[in-house]
Amino acid sequence: MTDASQPQSQGQPSLEGRLMAQRKLLARIVAHLGDEAIDAFLAERGHVNLEDEDPGATPDPAFAIEGAMADEMRQIADLAARFRKD
Description:
Elements: H1 12-33, H2 36-44, H3 61-85
Helix pairs in contact: 1-3
């Protein structure tokens, strides 16, 4: 038997699979709770404020992280909405 606290693989497919599983679990929890405050939290953080960005400037790595976080919040909110319909 393997130790569940130790990952089997550190590769990209393993990491991606783990993140997808966490997203699905979080979305199920959000759907089950049906809490308007959590829905508002996800909605507020599901977009990136582009007002301060210069369209001609070189993208800042922090902006890429912020964009990825916003995308993840949208995906969790969208998946939770689908789970609520089921």
